[in-house]
Design a protein that fits this description.
This protein has helices at residues 4-14, 20-35, 40-50, 54-63, 83-87, 90-101, 143-153; strands at residues 75-80, 107-108, 114-119, 131-133, 136-138. It is α+β, with helices and mostly antiparallel strands. Strands 2-3-1-4-5 form a five-stranded mixed β-sheet, with helices on one face. Helix 2 (20-35) packs across helix 4 (54-63). The radius of gyration is 17 Å and the shape is elongated. It binds FE2/S2 (inorganic) cluster (FES). FE2/S2 (inorganic) cluster (FES) binds next to helix 5.
Length: 154
């Protein structure tokens, strides 16, 4: 069950948008922060708070990749593999991360610290190749930069 604070936050969001359907996306971020991923219960709670049918929340949560549908590690590494990043070595970046972490894409390390994902464009094409770890961007990636970044999280 969502905390009182989360419910309050979602209710406050309704005052900032034209209609309830527009609140679904930011409300899902609240759910993700609260539970660590988007649970079915969380989607139903959002629908209930916003006065929507559950399908109106499910369809949005399942369409967008930024909503995690299953638990992720403490640090969720999302490597952009869209065109600009791909042209500048995104697949190599994924390989480097995969080898250093000992996991494949869509997997989490046994200690639940890192999850590795390949995602669509994150809107930072000018600094490709890039990745997002939790809420932060890491850009112009090289193998050396990745080593330093991972060290800072260990
Ligand atoms: S293609 Fe990678 S950020 Fe846009």
């Amino acid at each position: 069950m969502l905390s009182e604070g989360a419910v309050k936050e979602i209710n406050e969001l309704t005052g900032k948008y034209a209609n309830s359907r527009s609140v679904v996306m930011p409300a899902l971020y609240v759910v993700q922060r609260e539970y660590g991923y988007i649970t079915e219960e969380g989607m139903r709670e959002v629908a209930n708070i916003l006065g929507l049918r559950p399908i109106q929340v499910f369809e949005i949560a399942t369409f967008y990749t930024m909503y995690n549908k299953k638990p992720v590690g403490k640090y969720h590494i999302q490597v952009c593999t869209n065109i600009s990043c791909s042209l500048l070595g995104a697949e190599y970046i994924v390989d480097v991360l995969s080898k250093k972490l000992g996991i494949k894409v869509k997997e989490t390390t046994p200690d639940k610290k890192f999850t590795l994902s390949a995602v669509e464009c994150l809107g930072s094409c000018g600094t490709a190749p890039m990745m997002q770890i939790n809420d932060n961007y890491y850009e112009d990636l090289t193998e050396e930069k990745i080593e330093e970044i991972l060290k800072s999280f260990r």
